[in-house]
Amino acid sequence: MTGAELTIETLLRRGVDTCFTNPGTSEMHFVAALDRTPAMRSVLALFEGVATGAADGYGRIAGRPAATLLHLGPGMANGLANLHNARRARTPVVNLVGEHALTHRDLDPPLATDIESLARPMSGWVGTVTAGDRLAATVDAAVDAAQGPPGTVATVIVPADLSWSDVPAGPTGGRARADGAATAAMPRLPERSPLGEVVAALRSGEPTAVVVGGRVCSGTALRRAAQVAASAGARLLAETFPGRLERGAGIPAPNRLAYLAELAQVQLDGLRHLVLVDAPLPVSFFAYPGMPGVLVPDGCAVHVLAGPADDVDGALDELARELGVAAAAPVPAPAAGRPDRPTGALTAESLAAAIGAVLPDGAIVSDESNTCGLHIPGTTAGCPPHDWLTLTGGAIGQGLPVATGAAIAAPDRPVLCLEADGSAMYTIQSLWTQAREGLNVTTVVLDNHAYGILAFELSRVGAGTAGPIAASMLELDRPDLDFVALATGMGVPANRASSADELVLLLEKAMAEPGPSLIHAPVPRTM
Amino acid sequence: MTGAELTIETLLRRGVDTCFTNPGTSEMHFVAALDRTPAMRSVLALFEGVATGAADGYGRIAGRPAATLLHLGPGMANGLANLHNARRARTPVVNLVGEHALTHRDLDPPLATDIESLARPMSGWVGTVTAGDRLAATVDAAVDAAQGPPGTVATVIVPADLSWSDVPAGPTGGRARADGAATAAMPRLPERSPLGEVVAALRSGEPTAVVVGGRVCSGTALRRAAQVAASAGARLLAETFPGRLERGAGIPAPNRLAYLAELAQVQLDGLRHLVLVDAPLPVSFFAYPGMPGVLVPDGCAVHVLAGPADDVDGALDELARELGVAAAAPVPAPAAGRPDRPTGALTAESLAAAIGAVLPDGAIVSDESNTCGLHIPGTTAGCPPHDWLTLTGGAIGQGLPVATGAAIAAPDRPVLCLEADGSAMYTIQSLWTQAREGLNVTTVVLDNHAYGILAFELSRVGAGTAGPIAASMLELDRPDLDFVALATGMGVPANRASSADELVLLLEKAMAEPGPSLIHAPVPRTM
After folding, report:
1. In chain B, domain spans
2. Could you report the per-residue pLDDT of B105-122, keeping only the tens digit for each?
């Protein structure tokens, strides 16, 4: 058995059965091994950022890691931005990165680089396999690290000579040591507060908010947190960019902390207690002149019920017991309801109404709509239950790949990708993989012909108003991008919506038909 | 004066007057400063790999650095693959990378990463500015490092609070220390051989080759090296992937060492002396089972006349003097001549003939044609003088960005981009920048519907023949990519060539008209 075969067998044994690939020569033995291990589903991407973003989307929906297969340092580099987002989402991902045979790397051939230095900032765990009998143990350790808690990106670097050589087969059962270790990119673990302190805060009668994040944004944990907050008269907030937020009619609806620090400060104003449940301390996304970085108001105490590495369900149950909150306690949640189908001009508002009017039951929404999409969370709050995947790490170019991976994890669910024009162009190659795999993804490109957020941020950072040169760096209208042509060029059927009425019809048609499609939706700038 | 303004002023003072940008919020003060420093030409890219590859192409042609403007760690990450190629080409490039205010970074906001860890593998020099009065000195040091020799990629990381704050203006004149240092990514400097040893090798009468690389692939150095080799009866070889190779009728034509180790071994077989002039030791691009990594034959001595940090012109003049080679000594070079215009079916051979038949005088060729382009160097050898830019680091996705930057460096020269289908899709966003800037780039996409090189490498690495799953990871024909649609979607006029005759007509038309255009050229697989 070659090292490549053992690697794939070890992944399969651990339940990792999907691999997003963009291989090169140093990974050809992995490609060859795929023929002999057909249980590993391999999905080709035209660019590594598509592969890593798809692994993120897959992991958020499947709850277990996909693998990626990347080519040496440059292939790893091309995948890093979306691994950054996956790391921030605490999504389990296992990267396989080919490396030159180590003796060959020492000759400094053209493709040699320091892969570990590249991998570490975006991986919570990194290992370079140094011997064949360490391969299975190292892959096992990587899967363990990826799964967490906290979930993270684990990167296994496999020298080519180990992937082509015969290696000892089967599980190593702890006989050989693994190569690799956790990195500084793991989440900083906050100190848990004593339970009595959290209970006292929630019983204080003072203005209090429970902030949910990570694993508490869906399922039982979200309902339990909502019950606890309601019983204590506390507000329920969520971190700004959760990896996966379950929402819709009947599901607790925490207020997401605003991206804009000024608005988040309004949300937190007057609070005396914040109870964090798998949520980070609220800090500003960027620094601004004269603005505080930490957004907790003066005089507000911060309590940590559970952090990223803790048993959040157990902690919430214990808290509920202490507070006397029954399992059947009421769960405040939005009522069912949708906006009417909009008519007339296509604007950010009417587009949001159109999404709300048609979003199907059980949809997965990959949301990288940025400034154009501000109204969409409001119009979809009462839609049937769905999952919302957000731009966790702020590295744009996430939406299309995450939608791609989510559709592979959940082939029977409709996936809606809300994608801003500027962000779309970082990983537009995703459309080809969607076409190749026949994925049920409907992409709406919200096209305001600009990096809208930057035009807005330019004034917020105190840099004044854009003159003609600065403005030209923020505008995408010279030339206009034709997303219908781009999509059809990659095999995805596409149409342009010229009115809100037309958008509704196109959305319904796209979501009713199997396979991918794209709707180009030009909208006026909102900022 | 803000730190952002001082940074741009310092670059302008050092002759760096072109900046390829893909900024974010943390770089908005740089964008604002562009309005007040219009001498800095700023060119927007839709993806960072386009910006960095364009800086590489610019530097190879201009002989001085362009700047890039990148957004935090993820923006740096997206630009790394083409910085890898630039580093291997020893192209001078100065990256400006925005960073959070350092106090804000310590709060671990969503976009925080270890930018230096990302930058180091692809940068010969990295510095994070720690105080306003160190800014100008640090930018100066980065330009010094970038220019070399050896030329390299220098990365300056500028915290946002320094870019928005008032800083001491003007050149620092050594008053403040620079932040930053050279990294392990600098070329390893070989030990120079005593001149007498090189002279003895060339006078030995034994089989000898002079291998030129880097700065010896163009201009006076190339002619001088050719004179020396001819006078000594030595062969003239060139490194496999030079950054810029001057070639055509009347210009010395070193045989480039083959990418395939087996072929390079044939080229080197029987040699007793190799004289390296700014060229690396010949090593295999990849490791293969049972194959040597170093390609120097047994019994062949290696002599280094000059390395990447040395004065190559001085070393060659000194050698010529010792050998008694006059400045007017004959320079063996190809005679003028072109292939006839091909007719009939479009194949790799007829495509190569078409390029040779029409390549204009003074053209710049950005060559990422890979397996489909094997015949093109042969058909263009007798064309009028032109520059050939190659895939120096092996990180695909270079051709389109390099052509973009070269066209900005030399607006009066025709640029021909020979681009393979698979490689094109890594940085296809380049076409939009070409349209926006009205660049004289003609792109020919050589489309064999496959990662042709990988299908070939699969058998070479001993992995056998591809079964259906492995083959599907190497083929790009499900769905076919429509490069005409992709180009028009980004504002670049495009056509498809269905025969060799049609390709000739389309090439002549495209190169006669101003602005960019693309020709989609489907060809059968050659490997």
Report:
1. 3-182, 195-323, 348-522
2. 999 999 999 999 999 999
B489 → closest Cβ in A392, A422, A485: A485
Q: Which of A108, A435, A470 sits opposite B34 (nearest CB)?
A: A470
Q: What is the mean pLDDT of each run of 10 residues along chain A (527 residues)?
A: 96 98 93 94 98 98 98 98 98 98 95 98 98 95 98 98 87 74 94 98 98 98 98 98 98 97 96 98 94 96 98 98 96 97 97 98 97 95 98 98 98 98 98 98 96 85 85 92 98 98 98 96 85
Measured CA to CA, the distance from residue B461 to residue B426 in angstroms comes to 25
Among A5, A18, A19, A25, pick the best mutation site for testing chain B contact (most B Cβ within 10 A): A25
Q: Among B104, B283, B466, select the one facing A109 at the smallest CB separation.
A: B283
**With contact defined as beta carbons under 8 Å apart, do B497 and B519 qualify?**
yes
- Alpha-carbon distance of B353 to B365, in angstroms, equals 15
Tell me: ipTM over 0.90.
Answer: yes
Residue B460: predicted pLDDT = 82
**Cis amide linkage into residue B339, ω under 30° from 0:** no
Q: What's the rounded mean pLDDT across residues B448-467?
A: 85
Domain B3-182 has CATH 3.20.20.70: no
Strand A153-159 to strand A208-212: parallel, antiparallel, or no bridges (unpaired)?
unpaired
- What digits encode the pLDDT tens for the residues B325-358? 999 999 999 999 999 999 999 999 999 999 999 9
- Cα–chain-centroid distance for residue A526? 25
The one-letter amino acid code at B209 reads A
pLDDT score at A47? 98
What is the predicted pLDDT for the residue at B168?
81
Considering only CB atoms, B489 lies closest to which of A117, A426, A482, namely: A482
Q: Strand order of the sheet with strand A93-99?
A: A41-44, A18-22, A66-70, A93-99, A153-159, A125-128, A181-182
Is A241 at the interface with chain B, CB within 8 A?
Answer: yes
Burial B109-122 (b: 16+ CB within 10 A, else e): bbbbbbbbbbbbbb
Report the DSSP beta bridge partners of residue A256. Answer: A238
Edge-to-edge strands, sheet with B386-389: B245-247, B386-389, B364-368, B415-420, B441-447, B517-522, B494-496
Mutate to test the interface with A, among B22, B113, B155, B451 (most CBs of A within 10 A): B113
pLDDT of res. B462: 80
Q: Which residue has the tokens 């400045």?
A: B327
Which amino acid, one-letter code, is at A151? G
What are the phi and psi torsion angles at A219 (to 5°)? 65, -155
Residue A48 CB contacts under 8 Å (≥ 6 apart), including other chains: A22, A68, A70, A71, A75, A76, A77, A78, A79
String of DSSP letters for B351-382 = HHHHHHHHPPTT-EEEEE-GGGGTTHHHHHTT
- Dihedral sign for Cα B51, B54, B56, B58, please: negative
Contact (CB<8Å) A287/B467:
no
pLDDT of residue A18: 98
Q: Is the pLDDT of residue B527 over 70?
A: no
Residues in Cβ contact with B282 at an 8 Å cutoff, skipping those fewer than 6 apart: B211, B239, B240, B257, B264, B268, B274, B294, B295, B296
CATH fold label, A348-522: Rossmann fold (3.40.50)
- Flag if B161 and A287 touch (Cβ within 8 Å): yes
Instruction: Tell me the pLDDT tens digit for each residue of B160-179.
Output: 999 999 998 765 545 679 99
Report whether CATH 3.40.50.1220 matches the domain A195-323.
yes
Amino acid found at B247: R
In Å, how far are B108, B486, B513 from B399, measured between CA atoms?
Answer: 37, 16, 21
Cβ within 8 Å of B, A 426-455: 426, 428-429, 432, 435-436, 453-454
